[in-house]
C-alpha cells in the first residue's frame, strides 16, 4: 500500500518487479509484522485504503439491499390476496421487522457510508481519510453487526417487534425468542461503525481539504455528508442508551420498560425517536447531496442557489432534532406537546421545499442530457416531492391520528426513502461507476433499470396511499375481505396492484445487477471524464491511484474542474463559455507537478481483529455465557493495544528500497506490488 | 459503551502520518485545514457524542428516580459525605491531569509519568469508592433489579464508572508506553488527548453528582 | 402523472362507499373536525405537487440538449430564492393555525355525557361500563367485549389502558387513534351521529395476532340503548335442567371458567384480570349472543346472511335488527364450534406449551381444549342462551 515515488534523473519503467516493502522485525511496532500484500484477499481484508473500504461498504450494502428486497417480496406475496398463506403470522412479523431494519441499518446507512468513504476524500482533494484504520474498523463493525443481526434467522427466529421495537411488546414475556437480543446487540455493533465513521468523516472534511477549498467551495455531496455525520454523532449515542436499556431489560432482568414495575413504556419511544427522526435525515441527506452533484453536471449549469441548498441542508439537520414526537401523535402526549411538534414538523418542510425548488431551477434554462444518472436524479425530485407532500398532510396532527400506522404512512416513507434515498443512490451508482471501476455502466440496461424501478415503485407504493386512507393498518399479516369494501378503492384490488408493482420493482433491480455483470465482462474502459463533470474527484484517473492525486489540486472555484475546462469569454453581461482544456490536459498538468514523495497509511491487522471480538462479546451476552463475553473483551483489549502501538504509516525504514536522493521528481510511480 | 469508549484509545493513538499529502514528510503534524490536529478534533467529536450518551442515561434516571421500593429510595440510601469525598478525589485528579499535560508540553518525561500515575491512582480511588458504595447499597438490599430507581441509578453511575476505569487503563498504558518509548507520533498530544477525555469524565461526574446526589428526590 | 394520480386518488377516495374503515367518511363529531381540517391540506398538497410536476415536465421538454450553447454559469438569484423560501413558509403557517385550533378542540373532554372504559389485551378489547349518572344512568358496572355500544348523539368519554402491551383504539368513522398504554390512562372523545355499526382495528403493533385484533362501535338511538343496557344487566338465567345447555353449563365450569366469566354463574376461582403481565382472563361471556362477533371481533357470530342484514341496515332499521342478537337460526355455528375445539388453528396465539417459559406456562390467547363433539355441542347450546 505504501507508495514510494522513486525520484530519478530520467523516467524509467521499473525493469523488474520491485520487491515488496519489507517490515523488518526489529523495526516493527506492535505485536505482529504488518501485512504487506497489495493483491489478493489480504489486500482487501487488511486494507486501510478509503477506496477499497468504500467499495466493500458498497458491495456489502448492496447484498443486504437484495436480502431486504427479497424480504419485501415475501411480504407483498403474503398480502397480494386476502387471508394470505405464504407466511405464518410469526414469520411475517419477523419479516417486516427485518426488512425495515436491514434496509435502514444495513443498506441505507452503510451505502451512504460507502459512497462517502470513496468520494469525500476525492471531492476535497485528500489522499485518504483522517483515521484510516478506524475507517477499516468501522466497516468490519458494520459487517459484524449485520451478521449478528441476520444470524438470528438461523438461531431460533429473528426479532419480531417491528424496527421501532416498541416496549413492552419486545420484552421477554411477549417476545420470548432471542431475536430481539440479536437485534439489539447487532445494531449496537453496527452503531459503533456509524459513530466511528461519522467522527472520521467529519475530521476528514474539516481538516483535510485541498488548499483553497473553503467550506463554501465544497461540493454539495460532501456538505450533505458532513451534516449527516453530525447527525450520526449525536443520534447514535441516544439509541445506544436505548439498546443498552433494552439489553439490560431482556438479559439482566431490569425493568426499564415494564409497566408492572412502574415503568413508562413511552421512555423507549422517546429515546427511539430522538434517534429515529434524525435517522430519517441521515438516510435521505446523502442522496440529496448526490442529486445536487448529478443535476448540475447534466444540466451544464452550477447548482442553483448553492448557499441556499447548503444552508437548507444544515437547517434540516437542526430541525430534525425537534420533530421526533411526530411519530407519537397518537401515543397520548398532551395537546400542547403535540401542537409544538406538529408546528416544528411543518417548519421542516420549508428547507426541504427549498431543495426541491433549487433542483428544479438548476435544470431550468440548462442544457439537459438524459443519461441514466440524470434520470434517477430527476426521478428523485419528482418522487421525493410526493413523499414530502404526503408528509405535510400528516404533520397536521389531528389528521395524522387517522393516518398513522396505516398504509398511508407506509406509502409516505417509501416515497421518501425509496424515492429519496434509493433513487439518489442509483443516480450516484451510474454517475460514479466509471470513477470507481473505470467502466461506464450500460446506458441501455440503465434505462430499463430506471423505468422498471420507477413504474414498479409507483405501482407498489402509490396504491398504499389508497389502502391507508381506506383504513388498512400496517403490520398485519393478513387482511380480510370483510373490511376491504367493494368500490373502486377496495383493498383487494389495490393490494394486488401493489404486490405486482413490487415484483416489477424487483425486475428493475435485477436489471441493475445484470448491468454490473455485463459492464464488467464486456464494458469498454471509460473515458477520463465521461460526463463533463464539475468537481475535484474527476481530476484523477479512473479508478484513482492509491494515493488519489499525484499532486493535491489547488482550488480556486466552486466546481473547480469545470472552471479549469471552460472559460467565459463573453464581455459584460454577455456570456460565451468556451472549452479551454480537455480533462486529459487538466490531469496532465496536475501530474506534471506530482509530489516527490507520498506516504500512504499502511495496512493493518488490528481493525478486523478488534471488530471480530464484538460479535463474540454479543453472543456471550445473548446466551448468558458470560465467560465467552469476557474472553472476547480481553481479546479486544489485546487488539487495541496492538493497534495503539502500531504507527498509522510504517516508518521509512520499513520500506525497501529507500528513496534515493537525486535531481527532481518524476511522475513515474513504482508501486509496491 | 465500553466499546466506543475504548475507541478513545484508538483515536488517541491513530497516527495519521502524512497521508493528508500536504507536503509533509512524516515528521510532526502536517498542516490541517482547521489547524487542529485530526486526533484532537476527533476526540472533541467523540466527547460531544458522549454527552448525548450520558444525557440519555441521566434522563432515564431523572424519570425513574422517584420510583423506588420502600426504604430504598435515594433519600434513604445515599451516603452523602462519603460520595462527596470521593467526588473531591476525582476532581483533584483533574488537577493532576493538568500538571501531566503541562509537563508533557515541557517534554518533562519524569513529571509526565509521575502525574499520570497520580491521576490514575486518584481515579482508582474514586472507582474503589464506587465499588464500596455499590457493595454497601447491595448489602442494604438495593440490587440492580430491585426497582426502577436502582436500575437507572446503577446504569448511570455504572457507565460513568466504566468510563473512569477505561480512563485509568489509558493513563497507565500511556505511562507504560512512554517508559518503553512505544508511542508512535506526538507524545505530548497523546497525553493531552487522554487529558481531554479525563476532564470530560470528571465534568460528567459533577453533573451526575449534582443531579443524583445533591438534589433531593 | 403521479401528482395527478395522487390528487385523483385523494379526491376519489372520498367517494368510495364500501370500505368500513375509510378515513374519509366521518360519521361523528371528532372525525368530522379532522376531516374538515385534512381535506384542504390534501388539496393544497395536491396543487403544489402538480406545480412541481408540471415544472419538471416543462424543463424536460424545453431544455433538453438540442445543441444550444452552454448556459450561463449563474449561481442563483437571491431575491427569487428568498421569495421561494417565504412562500412555502406562508402556506405552512396557513396550515399550522387551524391545526393547532383543531388539536385543542379535539382534546376537550369536559363536555362528555357518558363514560366507557376500554382495556386492550392481546388480542381483544374489553369494554367496561362503570357505575355513573351518564349514559342514561348505570347503577351496576358491567363489561362486554369486542363491541362497544353507545347511544347516538351523545359525547362519550372513552378512557382506555392496556393490560399487556401497547394497543391503539381506532374507529376511523368516529375518532382518530389513541394508543392505550399499560400503566397510563388515555382518553378520547367519541360520538356517533347515526345508529349503525362502525368498524375499527387495533393499530399499534401488538404482537403475533395484531392483524386479528378488531373492534366495533355500535351506536343505538337512546331508546334502543336503554333496552340493550337493561338486557346486559338482567340476572343470570340458568339453563333448564336436563337440557343440553345444562350439560353445557357444567362443561363451561370445568373447561372455560378458568378464564371466562359469566356474571352470576358461580364459577369460583376466576381472579380479577392481572394487570400488566399477560392475558390471563378472557372475554366476559355473560351476554355473548348480544354481540355479533367474537375472538377480538375477528369472527362473526352471525351467518353471512344475518350479518348482512345487520351491517347493511339503514339507520332506522338498525337498532331493531341489532337488538335481535344472535338467534339459533342466525348462529354461525361452524366458526364457533371450530373455535371452541381448536382456537389456535383459527387465530395465531401464544399457546404452545413448550414456548411459555417466560410466562410461567400460561398461554396468551385461547389454547386448544381438545373437546369432543358432544362437549362442543353442549357448550354451543349453553352459549346460545347467553343472550
Can you walk through the features of this model?
The complex is a heterotrimer of chains A (673), B (217) and C (387). Chain A has helices spanning 40-45, 50-79, 89-124, 132-151, 179-207, 220-251, 266-299, 306-319, 335-363, 372-395, 397-403, 407-437, 443-469, 491-522, 560-565, 583-591, 606-622, 626-644; strands spanning 3-5, 566-568, 577-579, 669-671. With 673 residues, chain A is mostly helical. Chain A has a two-stranded antiparallel ribbon with strand order 1-4. In chain A, a hairpin with an 8-residue loop joins strand 2 (566-568) and strand 3. In chain A, helix 3 packs parallel to helix 5, helix 5 (179-207) packs antiparallel against helix 6 and helix 10 runs antiparallel to helix 12. The longest helix of chain A has 36 residues, at 89-124. Chain B has 217 residues and is an all-alpha fold. Chain B is 74% helix and 0% strand. The relative contact order of chain B is 0.17. The model of chain B is unreliable at 1-29 (pLDDT under 50). Chain C has a five-stranded mixed sheet with strand order 3-2-1-5-8, with no helix packed on it. A three-stranded mixed sheet of chain C has the order 4-10-9. Mean pLDDT of chain C is 88; it is low at 269-280. Chains in contact: A-B, A-C. Chains A and C meet through helix 3, helix 8, helix 9, helix 10 and helix 11 of A and helix 1, helix 2 and helix 3 of C.
Amino acid at each position: 500500500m505504501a507508495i514510494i515515488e522513486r525520484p530519478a534523473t530520467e523516467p524509467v519503467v521499473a525493469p523488474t518487479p520491485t520487491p515488496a516493502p519489507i517490515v523488518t522485525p526489529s523495526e516493527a511496532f506492535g505485536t505482529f509484522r504488518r501485512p504487506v500484500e497489495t493483491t489478493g484477499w489480504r489486500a482487501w481484508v487488511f486494507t486501510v485504503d478509503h477506496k477499497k473500504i468504500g467499495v466493500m461498504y458498497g458491495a456489502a450494502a448492496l447484498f443486504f439491499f437484495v436480502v431486504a428486497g427479497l424480504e419485501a417480496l415475501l411480504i407483498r406475496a403474503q398480502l397480494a390476496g386476502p387471508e394470505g398463506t405464504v407466511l405464518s403470522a410469526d414469520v411475517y412479523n419477523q419479516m417486516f421487522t427485518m426488512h425495515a431494519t436491514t434496509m435502514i441499518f444495513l443498506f441505507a446507512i452503510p451505502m451512504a457510508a460507502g459512497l462517502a468513504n470513496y468520494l469525500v476524500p476525492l471531492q476535497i482533494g485528500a489522499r485518504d481519510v483522517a483515521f484510516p484504520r478506524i475507517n477499516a474498523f468501522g466497516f468490519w463493525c458494520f459487517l459484524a453487526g449485520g451478521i449478528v443481526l441476520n444470524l438470528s434467522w438461523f438461531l431460533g427466529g429473528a426479532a419480531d417487534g417491528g424496527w421501532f421495537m416498541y416496549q413492552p411488546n419486545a420484552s421477554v414475556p411477549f417476545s420470548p425468542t432471542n431475536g430481539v437480543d440479536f437485534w439489539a446487540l447487532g445494531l449496537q455493533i453496527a452503531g459503533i461503525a456509524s459513530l466511528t465513521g461519522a467522527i472520521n468523516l467529519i475530521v476528514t472534511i474539516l481538516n483535510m481539504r485541498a488548499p483553497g477549498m473553503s467550506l463554501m467551495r465544497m461540493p454539495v455531496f460532501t456538505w450533505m455528508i458532513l451534516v449527516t455525520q453530525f447527525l450520526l454523532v449525536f443520534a447514535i449515542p441516544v439509541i445506544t442508551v436505548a439498546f443498552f436499556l433494552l439489553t439490560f431489560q431482556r438479559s439482566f432482568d431490569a425493568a426499564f420498560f415494564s409497566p408492572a414495575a412502574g415503568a413508562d413504556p413511552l421512555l423507549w419511544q422517546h429515546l427511539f425517536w430522538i434517534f429515529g427522526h434524525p435517522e430519517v435525515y441521515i438516510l435521505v441527506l446523502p442522496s440529496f447531496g448526490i442529486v445536487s452533484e448529478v443535476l448540475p453536471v447534466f444540466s451544464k449549469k452550477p447548482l442553483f442557489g448553492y448557499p441556499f441548498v447548503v444552508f437548507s441542508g444544515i437547517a434540516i439537520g437542526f430541525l430534525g432534532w425537534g420533530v421526533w414526537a411526530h411519530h407519537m401523535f397518537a401515543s397520548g402526549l398532551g395537546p400542547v406537546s403535540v401542537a409544538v411538534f406538529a408546528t416544528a414538523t411543518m417548519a421542516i418542510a420549508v428547507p426541504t421545499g427549498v431543495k426541491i425548488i433549487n433542483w428544479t431551477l438548476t435544470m431550468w434554462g440548462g442544457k439537459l442530457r438524459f443519461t441514466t444518472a440524470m434520470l434517477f436524479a430527476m426521478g428523485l425530485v419528482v418522487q421525493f416531492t410526493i413523499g414530502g407532500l404526503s408528509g405535510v398532510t400528516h404533520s397536521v396532527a389531528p389528521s395524522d391520528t387517522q393516518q398513522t400506522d396505516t398504509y398511508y404512512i407506509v406509502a409516505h416513507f417509501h416515497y421518501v426513502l425509496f424515492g429519496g434515498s434509493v433513487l439518489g443512490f442509483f443516480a450516484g451508482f451510474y454517475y460514479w461507476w466509471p470513477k470507481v471501476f473505470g467502466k461506464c455502466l450500460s446506458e441501455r440496461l440503465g434505462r430499463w433499470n430506471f423505468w422498471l424501478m420507477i413504474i414498479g415503485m409507483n405501482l407498489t407504493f402509490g396504491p398504499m396511499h389508497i389502502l391507508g386512507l381506506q383504513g388498512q393498518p400496517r403490520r398485519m399479516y393478513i387482511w380480510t375481505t370483510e373490511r376491504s369494501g367493494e368500490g373502486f378503492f377496495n383493498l383487494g384490488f389495490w393490494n394486488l396492484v401493489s404486490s405486482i408493482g413490487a415484483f416489477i420493482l424487483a425486475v428493475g433491480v435485477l436489471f441493475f445487477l445484470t448491468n454490473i455483470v455485463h459492464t464488467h465482462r464486456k464494458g469498454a474502459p471509460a473515458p477520463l471524464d465521461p460526463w463533463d463533470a464539475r468537481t475535484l474527484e474527476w481530476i484523477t484517473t479512473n479508478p484513482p491511484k492509491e494515493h488519489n492525486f499525484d499532486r493535491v489540486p489547488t482550488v480556486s472555484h466552486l466546481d473547480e474542474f469545470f472552471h479549469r475546462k471552460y472559460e467565459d469569454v463573453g464581455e459584460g453581461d454577455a456570456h460565451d463559455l468556451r472549452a479551454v482544456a480537455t480533462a486529459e490536459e487538466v490531469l496532465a498538468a496536475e501530474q506534471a507537478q506530482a509530489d516527490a514523495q507520498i506516504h500512504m497509511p499502511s495496512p493493518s491487522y488490528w481493525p478486523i481483529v478488534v471488530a471480530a471480538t464484538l460479535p463474540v462479546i454479543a453472543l456471550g451476552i445473548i446466551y448468558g455465557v458470560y465467560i465467552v463475553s469476557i474472553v472476547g473483551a480481553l481479546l479486544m483489549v489485546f487488539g487495541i493495544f496492538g493497534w495503539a502501538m502500531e504507527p498509522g504509516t510504517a516508518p521509512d525504514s520499513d520500506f525497501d528500497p529507500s528513496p534515493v536522493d537525486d535531481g527532481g521528481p518524476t511522475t513515474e510511480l513504482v508501486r509496491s506490488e | 459503551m465500553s466499546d466506543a469508549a475504548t475507541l478513545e484509545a484508538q483515536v488517541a493513538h491513530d497516527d495519521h502520518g502524512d497521508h493528508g499529502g500536504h507536503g509533509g514528510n512524516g515528521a510532526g503534524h502536517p498542516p490541517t485545514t482547521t489547524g487542529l490536529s485530526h486526533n484532537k478534533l476527533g476526540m472533541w467529536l467523540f466527547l460531544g457524542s458522549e454527552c448525548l450518551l450520558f444525557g440519555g442515561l441521566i434522563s432515564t434516571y431523572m424519570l425513574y428516580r422517584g420510583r423506588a421500593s420502600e426504604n430504598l429510595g435515594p433519600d434513604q440510601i445515599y451516603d452523602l459525605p462519603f460520595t462527596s469525598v470521593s467526588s473531591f478525589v476525582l476532581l483533584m485528579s483533574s488537577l493532576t491531569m493538568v500538571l501531566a499535560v503541562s509537563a508533557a508540553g515541557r517534554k518533562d518525561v519524569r513529571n509526565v509519568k509521575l502525574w499520570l500515575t497520580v491521576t490514575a491512582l486518584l481515579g482508582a480511588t474514586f472507582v474503589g469508592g464506587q465499588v464500596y458504595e455499590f457493595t454497601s447499597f447491595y448489602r442494604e438490599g438495593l440490587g440492580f433489579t430491585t426497582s426502577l430507581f436502582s436500575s437507572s441509578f446503577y446504569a448511570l453511575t455504572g457507565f460513568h464508572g466504566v468510563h473512569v476505569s477505561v480512563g485509568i487503563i489509558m493513563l497507565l498504558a500511556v505511562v507504560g508506553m512512554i517508559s518503553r518509548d512505544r508511542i508512535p507520533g506526538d507524545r505530548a498530544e497523546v497525553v493531552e488527548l487522554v487529558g481531554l477525555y479525563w476532564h470530560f469524565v470528571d465534568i460528567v461526574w459533577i453533573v451526575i453528582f449534582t443531579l443524583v446526589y445533591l438534589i433531593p428526590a | 402523472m403521479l401528482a395527478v394520480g395522487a390528487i385523483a386518488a385523494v379526491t376519489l377516495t372520498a367517494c368510495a362507499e364500501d370500505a368500513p374503515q375509510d378515513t374519509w367518511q366521518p360519521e361523528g363529531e371528532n372525525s368530522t373536525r379532522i376531516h374538515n381540517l385534512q381535506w384542504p391540506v390534501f388539496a393544497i398538497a395536491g396543487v403544489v405537487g402538480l406545480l412541481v410536476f408540471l415544472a419538471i415536465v416543462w424543463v424536460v421538454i424545453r431544455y433538453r440538449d438540442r445543441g444550444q450553447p452552454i448556459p450561463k454559469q449563474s449561481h442563483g438569484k437571491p431575491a427569487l430564492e428568498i421569495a421561494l423560501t417565504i412562500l412555502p413558509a406562508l402556506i405552512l403557517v396557513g396550515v399550522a393555525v387551524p391545526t393547532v385550533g383543531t388539536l385543542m378542540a379535539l382534546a376537550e373532554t369536559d363536555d362528555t355525557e357518558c363514560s366507557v372504559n376500554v382495556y386492550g389485551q392481546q388480542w381483544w378489547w374489553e369494554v367496561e361500563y362503570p357505575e355513573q349518572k351518564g349514559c342514561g344512568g348505570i347503577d351496576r358496572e358491567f363489561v362486554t367485549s369486542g363491541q362497544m355500544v353507545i347511544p347516538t348523539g351523545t359525547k362519550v368519554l372513552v378512557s382506555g389502558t392496556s393490560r399487556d402491551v401497547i394497543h391503539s383504539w381506532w374507529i376511523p368513522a368516529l375518532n382518530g387513534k389513541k394508543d392505550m398504554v399499560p400503566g397510563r390512562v388515555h382518553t378520547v372523545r367519541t360520538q356517533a351521529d347515526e345508529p349503525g355499526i362502525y368498524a375499527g382495528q387495533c393499530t399499534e403493533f401488538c404482537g403475533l395476532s395484531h392483524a386479528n385484533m378488531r373492534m366495533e362501535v355500535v351506536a343505538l338511538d337512546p331508546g334502543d340503548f336503554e333496552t340493550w343496557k337493561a338486557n346486559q344487566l338482567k340476572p343470570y338465567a340458568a339453563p333448564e335442567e336436563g337440557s343440553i345447555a345444562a350439560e353445557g353449563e357444567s362443561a363451561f365450569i370445568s373447561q372455560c371458567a378458568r378464564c371466562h366469566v359469566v356474571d352470576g354463574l358461580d364459577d369460583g376461582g376466576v381472579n380479577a384480570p392481572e394487570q400488566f403481565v399477560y392475558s390471563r382472563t378472557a372475554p366476559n361471556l355473560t351476554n355473548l349472543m348480544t354481540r355479533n362477533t367474537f375472538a377480538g371481533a375477528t369472527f362473526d357470530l352471525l351467518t353471512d346472511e344475518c350479518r348482512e342484514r345487520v351491517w347493511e341496515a339503514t339507520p332506522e332499521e338498525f337498532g331493531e335488527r341489532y337488538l335481535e342478537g344472535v338467534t339459533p337460526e342466525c348462529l354461525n355455528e361452524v366458526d364457533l364450534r371450530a373455535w371452541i375445539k381448536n382456537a389456535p388453528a383459527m387465530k395465531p396465539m401464544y399457546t404452545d406449551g413448550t414456548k411459555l417459559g417466560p410466562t410461567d406456562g400460561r398461554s396468551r390467547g385461547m389454547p386448544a381444549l381438545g373437546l369432543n363433539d358432544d362437549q362442543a355441542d353442549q357448550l354451543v347450546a349453553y352459549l346460545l342462551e347467553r343472550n
